[in-house]
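Quick one, tokens below:
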């Protein structure tokens, strides 16, 4: 075969492969002879079937195999001799006048833009005593205990109720329950329903109306008004634990030292703040990199990435309990994300190659150690990473990405901005 290269639009190329029919037929005959030596056919001993019968049954299949192998071999040789870097897979089709066309995309030439035009605002944050106090309050609320009280229900209490609801005098699905728990102020039930329970005491009965919101998840109830008859069974007051030795021990501080508990919380907040700052800075850097370095993106690679994102999303939804019939996703939803990921991958690969950026072993170990600090037994987590090449490869990829971002930061316009931990966490 001989091949010629044609440049189409953008990254598309076409190779015309001219087939030497004599070589194809010679290879077909060779493979048929090999098959004939062992083939089993009705009425003949193994390897004794007439060649014309063997050819009639197997020549078509073998000829397709020979063509496929030859096209792949010649395509590989042609792209090497023409120094072509193929992105994705080629499409083969018969060419006008004989031979075959192989249409494919090539990787783009990446030319970095003006990196000095990338602007980054880097948050500067410190975990304060107030941040530690807020975290302690969250931890206390997570460990709240409810105790029965002999008084009217108020905000923060948990009440158990029996209720029956009717719409136009008719029962509806979900409109009746026994010993149903409601924490007043938690907002897990409709506001009108929850608010009507405030001030009620044990054994008290009350009737009130509740209008379901127009956007209520149960469409058959949306916008309708139900009349509820409710009886309070019990009222429990929420009591949070004191910050004492027992509380500290419940959070993993063996000796119950509350000052050590505060130190650990502060360290955890600092680690989380560092991760948030790195993520925010990286997003700005990568957005700036994309804006400064426009390039054509191979549609084949985008399609493969889009399919991978779709597959991951579907698997995640199934893991959450959704059934196939309920998953209504289209690959087109993932198009922007896929194009962004492919574009960044191409640009970052170019930076790695041109600047010889690597992930140092000491950096990888430091990252793994940092991950491990969030667990009860850090040494076990470190071993878990180093026992599996795939897990360690993921850590190396994160370090390499961080090194690329740091290289870009040295060339970008970076300004520091003092902020609070609450703002960084999105709570302010």
């Amino acid at each position: 075969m001989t091949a010629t290269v044609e440049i189409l639009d953008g990254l598309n190329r076409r190779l015309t492969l001219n087939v030497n029919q004599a070589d194809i037929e010679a290879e077909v005959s060779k493979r048929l002879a090999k098959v004939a030596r062992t083939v089993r056919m009705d009425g003949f001993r193994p390897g004794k079937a007439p060649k014309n019968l063997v050819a009639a049954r197997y020549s078509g299949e073998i000829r397709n195999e020979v063509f496929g192998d030859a096209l792949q071999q010649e395509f590989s040789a042609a792209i090497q001799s023409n120094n072509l870097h193929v992105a994705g897979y080629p499409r083969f089709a018969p060419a006008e006048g004989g031979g075959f066309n192989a249409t494919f995309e090539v990787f783009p030439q990446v030319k970095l833009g003006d990196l000095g035009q990338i602007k980054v605002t880097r948050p500067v944050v410190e975990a304060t005593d107030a941040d530690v106090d807020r975290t302690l309050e969250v931890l206390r609320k997570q460990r709240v205990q409810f105790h029965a009280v002999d008084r009217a229900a108020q905000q923060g209490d948990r009440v158990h109720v029996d209720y029956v609801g009717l719409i136009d005098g008719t029962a509806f699905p979900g409109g009746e329950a026994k010993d149903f728990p409601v924490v007043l102020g938690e907002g897990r039930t409709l506001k009108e329903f929850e608010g009507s329970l405030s001030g009620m005491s044990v054994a008290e009965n009350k009737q009130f109306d509740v209008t379901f919101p127009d956007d209520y998840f149960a469409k058959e109830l949306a916008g309708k008004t139900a009349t509820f008859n409710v009886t309070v069974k019990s009222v429990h007051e929420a009591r949070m634990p004191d910050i004492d030795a027992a509380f500290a021990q419940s959070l993993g501080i063996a000796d119950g030292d509350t000052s050590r508990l505060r130190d650990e919380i502060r360290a955890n907040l600092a680690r989380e703040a560092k991760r948030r700052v790195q993520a925010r800075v990286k997003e700005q850097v990568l957005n700036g990199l994309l804006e400064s370095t426009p390039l054509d993106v191979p549609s084949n690679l985008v399609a493969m990435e889009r399919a991978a994102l779709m597959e991951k999303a579907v698997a995640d939804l199934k893991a959450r309990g959704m059934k196939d019939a309920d998953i209504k996703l289209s690959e087109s939803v993932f198009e922007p994300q896929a194009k962004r990921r492919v574009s960044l991958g191409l640009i970052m690969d170019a930076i790695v190659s041109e600047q010889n950026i690597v992930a140092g072993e000491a950096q990888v170990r430091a990252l793994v150690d940092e991950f491990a600090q969030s667990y009860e037994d850090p040494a076990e987590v470190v071993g878990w990473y180093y026992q599996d090449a795939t897990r360690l490869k993921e850590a190396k990829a994160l370090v390499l990405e961080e090194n690329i971002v740091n290289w870009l930061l040295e060339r970008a316009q970076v300004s520091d901005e003092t902020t609070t931990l609450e703002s960084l966490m999105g709570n302010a």
